Structures are given as structure tokens and as C-alpha cells.
Amino acid sequence: MYTLSSKLRLFSIILVVVGAIGLITGFLKAPSTIEEVKEMMAAHDAHGSSHGDAHTSNATHEGAHGTADAHGGDAHYEHVLHQLQNKPWAALYVAAFFFFMIALGVLAFYAIQFAAQAGWSPVLFRVMEAITAYLVPGGIILFVILALSGFHINHLFVWADPEVVAHDKLIQGKTGWLNSVGFIIRAAVFLGGWFLYRHFAVKFSRKQDENPEGNVWYKKSFKIAAGFLVFFIYTESMASWDWIMSFDPHWFSTLFGWYVFASLFVSGITTIALITIYLKSKGYMDFVNNSHIHDLAKFMFGISIFWTYLWFSQFMLIWYSNIPEEVTYFITRIEDYKLPFFGMLVMNFLFPLLVLMNSDYKRVNWFVVMAGIIILCGHYVDIFNMVMPATVGESWFIGLPEISAVLLFLGLFLFIVFNALTKAPLLAKGNPYIEESKHFHY
Amino acid sequence: MASKVIHALYIDDDVLMDAVKKVRSEKYHIEEVYTPFPVHGLDKAMGLPHTRLAITAFLYGCVGLTVAVTMMNYIMIEDWPQNIGGKPSFSYLENLPAFVPIMFELTVFFAAHLMVITFYMRSKLWPFKEAENPDVRTTDDHFLMELDASHHDIDTMTGFLSDTGAVEIKVIDKQADNH
After folding, report:
1. Contacts of A350 in chain B (CB under 8 A)
2. pTM, rounded to two decimals
């Protein structure tokens, strides 16, 4: 049995407190009037020499508006005001979604292990079950944020603003799907279905330990895993339209669901590897050998390539066809988000490609940990790039609210996951494949 | 000079694996093992060095990538630039997305084909090559272990091998020059 060390508990609580304070400060510091924005920008311009890049991009932006804008000088400041007001909300949203998607990715991975009757992985089941424990609290937090945004308490989703929709033919045509009530009902259905599978999967797994006779519970686990996977791939796809793609309601991509899936899948697998290596280093889980780590690292490598494949498939077609409604998505990202946009490719593709290509490196724990941390950061930036351009535009920065939100949810995630690890023995001893898994070697 | 080898035949891959481990712990030298199908873990049990095929695959992939980049740069940029889809091909970098699929395909093509050819050459396999396996039953359901017996007592060796589960043991005199 794993016991949560007081150090880890204290560490996660400190993360939550520090994150919460930082995030609240971020909300309080957001400007509420145009005058404040002007003051902030004046102060910013005053030390412009040290921020050369930011200054010039601002200047070009103002220039473009000056010539194109028919509605007065304050329009630009109002625009910036809305972006800066959105910034802490968007930071909160990106972090909430990122940690939720880790739990969801692990849930899908867990279900696949059952549906495929995999023999190598049952020694890792308790780690996966513990990570999915974050699904429920993380999902409820995400649901609350989605409800606030869907009903236009904040301005994250432009389609939720009746003012905007009234002047927008394209969004008007999509209101059959993109409306607040439907949005919330769908979110409730998706989350409810996932919670339900998580509840029964863990329950059956524990029952199988108590009573392995005849594998009655194992067979039930297999059946619900197969059913869940069908439900999951449809709902995950629709959730990615609702929760991410609708930030840019004019834009659409038909493989977006897969793309988000690849992101959450690789993040989830990476987290399994990191937590397993951590537990091993603390002397738990002697039954996990380096072949299990090797297999997880192979998945990290493979799904990173798969993610890149989908990213590129999406990018190249849109870049090549150059249709105005589609290509603006990438133009804004390449012009305003050059560093995170290309940096994410390095972190999510080039780095894992080079570090994890060698078979031997996949068994070296510190290599896997290093690659894992870069991959997780890379996928945070990936979500950042999906959400920020439509919510805060050029006013993006990874500053206080962004980092605080990550710390807040990281603390919450660690606390819940490691607490869940103490709830059951670390070896799912009733699983029919547990012996095979213990002796698994590559 | 004639050298002696022993052919020990087995009919089960698990028995074979155990036999290989025992033979190695007795410090006998295994020349080769012939099996009807790849036996997982046999190379490790025999103590064979790790294959370097993966390294060659990486190098071949690098060659393929280089060929693709050089070829397309010459064809599409230097020799005959065309305006395709409003994207004038005056710069390789600006047109990179269009070239990526070809770069990928040629990397895979070179890595795969050259790796297979390397594997054939390294295993001394080519068309019309005569089979090397000493017993045709190794293509069906028997496993054959060939041991060097030149400097050992034949009787203790055969006795030991039959204890490891060999179903048939043959002592063979080999001419040194035809090996």
C-alpha cells in the first residue's frame, strides 16, 4: 500500500495556495476601463527600448488599425481591454483543460488495455486508476468554467455573445449547434458518460481483486471498456469542437477531434510513465521492470509522431489551399505566436524524436523523465496556441495568471492522484494477466 | 585438418531455450542454432551481440532525407521554378510544407529498402543461394543446435546434451576448408 508522504501533501497544498493567490491577483490586475489600458500601455511604451519586439508589434498593430479603422481611436483600446480582461480567464481555462485532458487520456489508455486484453500493462493499472481519479473533480471544475463561458459571464466564446452573433452571418448559421443551452447539455452528457465509465471500471477492478474466481468482474471490465471506447471517440471529437474549436467559430477542421485526441493521449501516457518512475524511485512497485518503462516510452515516442502527423496534415492542407476563412487561423498564429507555435513543434516532435528514438534510451529513467517533462510542457503550449489567439489575441504572455493557473491545477492534480494511490494496493492482483505482466520482458 | 561438430536436435522451442542456457553455462561453444521460426529471446540466450541494423536504418534514413531535399531543391527551385497555387517557388524554406511529404516518403523508402538489402548481405542471402542448414527438418518442426566438439570429450558431451532434452544427437566430421 502506498502512503502519501506529508512532504508531498504539503508541496501540493503550497502549489494550490500559491497558484490561487497568483490567479486572483491576475484577475484583480486585469484592467476594467479603457483609461487603465491606456495607462498600462503608456507605462509599457516608456520602457520600450528593453521590450523592442513587443513595442514594434504593437506599433504595427496600431498602424494597421489607424488606416483600416473607421470607428475612432478608442476602438483599439477597447479591443485591448477585452483581450486583457479575457487573459486570466483564458489562463484558467487552458490549465483546467490541460490537467483534465491528462486524466481523460489515461482513461482512454486504460480502456484500450482492457479492450485489447493487453498482457504487458496490468502492473500499471493502479497508477492509471489513480490518475483518472482527477477526472471527476477536474471535470466538474471544467464544467463550471464552461457554463460561465457558455452563458457569457466572461467573454471567452464570442459565439456566446448575442451582440456579436447579431452582426455575424456565419455564426448565425451555426447557432443550431453553438448555443449556450445545447453547449451545456452536451458538456454534461460527455462528462457524465466518462465519469460513469470511470466509476464502474475502478469498481470492477477492485471487485476482481477481491473475487478473481471465474474472472466474472474482469469480463465485465472488458465489456464496459469496449462500450466506453465507442462512446469516447464520438464524444471526445464533439467535445473538442465545443470546448476548443469554437473559440474560432468561423474556422473549422475536420480532423480536429483526432488532433486533440493525440494531444491528450500522449500527455496521459507520459504522465503514467512519470508517476510510475517516481513511485519506483520511492521503493514502491518493484514488480515494474524496465521493459514496462520501455513500452511506455515507445508509446510516448509513437504518439508524439502521430500528433505531428495530424498537426501537419491539418496545417499543410490549409496552407496549400489558402482559403481566407481557413488560413487566417494559421496566419494569426504564425504572425502573433511565432515562438510558441514553432517552439511547440520542437518540444512535441523534434525533441521526443531525437531523444526517444534509440531503443536503449527508452529504458533509462532520467531520459524518459526529461523527455516526458518536455512533452507535457509542449502539449500545454499546444493547448495555449489553440485557445489564446481567439481569446487574448496579440496581448498574450505566459505571465502571472498563466503560471499561477498551472501551479493551482498541478497542485490539485498531484494531491488527488497521489491520494487516490493510497486507496488500493498498487498491484491489481486479481487481474488474470497479472503474472504475464510481471514477467513481461522485451 | 578435420574439426568435429555435434548436431543436437530438439522438437520444442522452450526446451531449446533451456538447453542453450545450460550449454552456455557449461562453457561449450554454440556455433549456430537453426530454427523453423524466429524464437523470441534466443539471440540473448546465445549471447549474440546486439544487432546494429537499427543504426544503419537511421543512417539510410538520413541519406534518403538528404536525397529528397537536394533533388527537390534542384527540380523545383533552381532548375525550373513554377508558380503553383499562388506560391512562387523561389525559396525552398517558404515552400517547405509542400515538400515535407516527399521528404518523409524518401526517408522511409531509403531506410526500408537499404535496411533489407543490408540484412540480406549480412546474412549472406542472395538469389539461388544454396541453403546452409544442415538438416531439412529445421525448416519444418525441428530445432538444431550445432556445437563445436573439437576439444571436448564426445561421450560426456553427448550425454550432457541428451540430458538437456535433445531427441537426436549426431557427431559430424567437418573439413576445415569447406566451413
Report:
1. none
2. 0.86
CB pairs under 8 A between A and B: 18
Q: Give the phi and the psi of residue A398 in degrees, each rounded to 5.
A: -90, 90
Q: Which three cell numbers stand for residue A362?
A: 527508452
Minimal Cβ distance to A316: which of B54, B86, B100: B100
Interface predicted TM-score (ipTM) of this complex, two decimals: 0.77
**Could you give the count of Cα atoms lying within 13 Å of A143 in the half-sphere of its Cβ?**
16
Q: How many alpha carbons fall within 13 Å on the CB side of residue A192? A: 6
Count of helix runs (H) and strand runs (E) in chain A: 18, 0
Nearest to B97 among A319, A357, A359 (CB): A319
Q: Residues with Cβ < 8 Å from A149, sequence gap 6 or more?
A: A89, A93, A156, A157, A160
Chain B, nearest residue to A353 by Cα = B58
* pLDDT string in tens for chain B (179-residue length): 457 889 999 999 999 999 999 999 988 889 899 999 999 889 888 988 888 898 999 999 999 999 999 999 999 999 988 888 777 778 888 889 999 999 999 999 999 999 999 999 998 888 898 888 888 999 999 999 998 888 888 888 888 888 898 899 988 887 654 54
